[in-house]
Amino acid sequence: MSDIKKPEIRILPDALINLIAAGEIIERPSAVIRELVENSLDAGACSIDVEVLVGGKQRIVVVDDGIGMNAEGVRLAMARHATSKIADKSDLGAIHTLGFRGEALPSMASVSRFSLFSREHDTDVGTEIRVDGGVVAYVRDAGIAAGTRVVVEDLFYSVPARRKFLKSDRTEYLNGYDVIVKHALSRPDVRFRFVADGKEVINAQPSTLRTRVGDVLGRRIAQEMGEVRGEQENIRVIGLVGRPEETRSTQSGIHLFVNDRPVRDYSLTAAIVRAFSGLILGGRYPIAVVFVQLPFSEVDVNIHPTKREVKFVDPRIVGGVVYRTVEAAVRQLTAVSIPLPRKTPYGPAGDLVRPTEGSIREAMGLWASLSDGRHRLEPEREGGAATDDSYREPDKTAPSSEIPDTVMKPAVPGMKLLGQVLGTYIVLSDGDGLVVIDQHAAHERVVYERIKAGRSRNAVVRQRLLFPMTLDLDGPDRAALVRHLDEINSIGFEVEEFGGTTLLVSAVPSIVSDGDVRDLIIGIAEELREGTGEPGIEEPIDRMIKAVACHGSVRAATELSEREIEGLIDEIERTPFAAHCPHGRPTMIRITRQEIERRFKRT
Ligand code: ADP
Ligand code: MG
């Protein structure tokens, strides 16, 4: 104790404060890119050029055509906590710019060799400032294009300890690339160009969201995506979602923007994933580009050092709107209609031929390699919302979002029911190949959707058991059931506690096919007990309905009569998402003529 020198409390000089702030804000080259691009967007740029050398470690240049700064502005911008974006406390409650803390430029200048060139549009002379390791070397006039150009060289040259923490050139380059992708997605109306080590990797012209998604995430993915659009309670949700077949093993395909700011948000991401529930396998994630737009006062962006996270005044409402809107989009995207004959009398299997209106290929979407043009997300110009300028001019010349109408209405030959094979699969043919339906998986989806729809309309149809059944259960299975009795009964069961370890079952949902009620209930109990290990993403009720669908559907290896097959196909036709079972596995596959020909080596 006595050895310790009496500490002296002192106020740190600005240069040191900047260094400390740089530690938080400028953790790596991609952070420089992010802060500079955000400044350019805040300055109203229509065009942003980013260039990096050696992953950004050696040099980062960002050039914009925004409003620019005059000489005084340039000097001020380099001062700590100097910002043009907020003025007083009340502004903090409704931040509508990407930046607001006034720390980014002085922070990066304190750990690099930094130059900034800027000129306002209505003057001839621009200004150049040079700062080395936080020390201003000079400020002078410069003849440059209107707008701002920032050059950051030798990042962390003065702080070797931080330089050591940088990853490989390639990794740093990829981090920067991700930043540009996010920002390019956030503002399809702004031109973005990215050049790395002399090679142009992104050159995206101002366009629609779909074209922009095509530019940065890939054309095929963009063309197949479905349009998200909805508005509730002051919250607007727009964007594009990928087909459920197009998944990723991480959440990297989910791009979320709140008032055009790229953000990470656990609960909104979960809401998006949940909208795909039953369509994609556990552990896989969809592709989605989702914009949530709400009044600036409803969201706090001042909670994270790099502004990557936000806090909603009412997160549950926002999550609900996102879920419902995205789910509607997914539903639309995967809508199925199998236009099979019902009124035509069956002849012997094989005679069932008749013209249909859509093709099963279109219907099932599973193999649809082309999207339909309906889901094009064109720029919308509505008055009012502050975010409208996110979608300025549609690029009428952009061909990539144009899908010929013929894709929508293919010439469709007849459909033929060939019968059931292996006691499990229903085989159909149209003029262009074979379709094989997994009867269990397809029926599972039918049962699942029926129960879900019945429950949401409060109209599940129950089937009373002739003799109520008692079920002796204990341990975690019983506890799980008892805990969820209300939910179980809301989907068509009548289960009650009957003293001791006994439960009494007196009704089941009428849609389940005659199976073993005991199996069914135990299946539910197990499902409830185990869960999926992904809390928050899947509701217990959903898991329960899946368990019912699984245990209450026609089994594989069950011979079906033609009438039953017809009935099932009829059901499939009326069921949303029928191309996948509730666990996300496909219910149908198509074997095309080409594939058959290829296997016979005809091609
Ligand atoms: P912040 O963005 O939080 O305000 P910065 O340190 O990033 O803080 O920038 C400081 C100020 O410099 C900004 O408020 C803005 O007025 C000005 N500025 C920075 N970059 C640009 C730019 N590219 N074009 C015009 N003005 C800029
Ligand atoms: Mg800034």
Q: What does this molecule look like?
A:
The chain is an alpha+beta fold and 603 residues long. It has three domains: 14-204, Histidine kinase-like ATPase, C-terminal domain (Heat Shock Protein 90, 2-Layer Sandwich); 219-333, Ribosomal Protein S5, domain 2 (2-Layer Sandwich); 361-591, MutL, C-terminal domain, regulatory subdomain (Ribosomal Protein S8, Chain: A, domain 1, 2-Layer Sandwich). The protein is 32% helix and 22% strand. The strands form five sheets. An eight-stranded mixed sheet has the order 5-4-3-6-2-1-7-8, with helices on one face. The longest helix has 19 residues, at 315-333. It starts with 13 loop residues before the first helix and ends with a helix. The model is unreliable at 337-413 and 532-537 (pLDDT under 50). The structure holds adenosine-5'-diphosphate (ADP) and magnesium ion.
Question: What are the main properties of this structure?
Answer:
binds adenosine-5'-diphosphate; 603 residues; Ribosomal Protein S5, domain 2; 3 domains; 22% strand; 19 helices; Heat Shock Protein 90; alpha+beta; binds magnesium ion; five-stranded mixed β-sheet; Ribosomal Protein S8, Chain: A, domain 1; 32% helix
Looking at the structure, what is the overall shape?
A: elongated
Strand element count = 22
Largest sheet: 8 strands, mixed
Q: Strands of the biggest beta sheet: in what spatial order?
A: 5-4-3-6-2-1-7-8
Structural class: alpha+beta
- CATH topology name of the largest domain: Ribosomal Protein S8, Chain: A, domain 1
Question: How many structurally independent domains?
Answer: 3
Low-confidence stretches: 337-413, 532-537
| Count of helical stretches | 19
Q: Considering DSSP H and I runs of 4 or more, what fraction of the residues is helical?
A: 25-40%
CATH architecture of the largest domain: 2-Layer Sandwich
Estimate what percentage of residues fall within beta strands: 15-25%
Mean pLDDT value: 81
The first-to-last residue Cα distance is: 88 Å
List bound small molecules: adenosine-5'-diphosphate, magnesium ion
Rg value: 30 Å
CATH class categorisation of the largest domain: Alpha Beta
